Amino acid sequence: MRILVIRRDNIGDLVCTTPLLAALRRRYPSAHLAALVNSYNAGVLAGNPDIDAVHVYTKLKHREHSLLATLAARLRLLSTLRRQEFDHVILAKSGFDRHGRALARRLRPKNIVGFAPGEAIGEDLHEVEIVMKLGAALDVNGPPGPLRVYPERTRVEHWKSRLPAGERSWVAVHISARVPGRIWPVENFVSLIQRLESGVILLWSPGSADDPRHPGDDARAAQIATACGPGVKLVPAKTESLEDLSAMLSLCRGFIGPDGGAMHLAAGLGLPVVAFFENLAAKKRHWHPWQVPYELVCPEGEDIAQVRVDQVLRAWRRLQAQ
Fold first, then answer.
1. Helices H / strands E in the chain, number of each
2. In the chain, which ranges are E strands?
3. What is the value of pTM for the model shown?
4. Within its chain, how far is the Cα of 108 from the centroid?
5. What single DSSP character describes residue 300?
6. Where in the chain is the domain with CATH 3.40.50.2000?
7. Crossing angle for the helix pair 186-195 and 309-321, nearest 10 degrees?
8. 11: which residues sit within 8 A by CB, 6+ positions away?
9. What is the pLDDT of residues 262-320, one digit of tens each?
């Protein structure tokens, strides 16, 4: 059997698909199981033992080459996938995926699995549980397992060698958020880091804030590192890839940061999580850290900037007490 799972969304979306991939592998250990992802989220599946092949295309907004070259590469990829004659293509999205369906039809598989337009999929379910429902069409049932990412050992050792000797306990503090309303102020991060009773690894999306393809937080990270001062056990870690981010997270014992891809990567490594979330019940149900100890800190209003430093500290200490 040849199965292709398509997940074209963001980092966290793909991390939340790993329980389905693991369940497909358990049910069909001899199948050829492949994934079609984009260049932005592909690092999530690096080293994943459940996948035989990862096929990557570049979204136009992320392209590094000309429009013509990017489209030509995409056509070559589609031709390659069509020749592989997949039995099943799964549109791993928690809702109707019109673009994914059009893409799957071009591959001419025997069967396409996905949600229909307007199909009721469960408002009270997590993203993991909804995506897992798609497995039923291939006789893959049962509750979904944990998220899983697999840091490369050599990368882990590389980052471990850059940590100061003597400090054995590190907390990852991630400052970046793709959505403007999820950004926590620099001064709040400085106050939090100064009051945490452990070493802190500072993580962020690399690059400049005005990069149209991948806006980054180099400037904010530099501000935080400078303001914290020399007396704080702080290691700024500019991770240029998802593989490096996963490796660095694997060296930590907990994660503090906004809802987003890094938060889900941390959950995929089994870390306890304190996450900044909008105060929306549906959002918290659908995207909370999956199957790890967690605390969600929410503002009284709509803006994450309203979350207080003492709220975050209390949440972290409750997790430590567990």
1. 12, 11
2. 2-6, 32-38, 53-57, 88-91, 111-113, 170-174, 199-203, 234-237, 255-258, 273-276, 294-297
3. 0.93
4. 30
5. S
6. 2-138, 153-321
7. 40
8. 40, 41, 44, 242, 260, 261, 262, 264, 265
9. 999 999 999 999 999 999 999 999 999 999 999 999 998 878 999 999 999 999 999 99
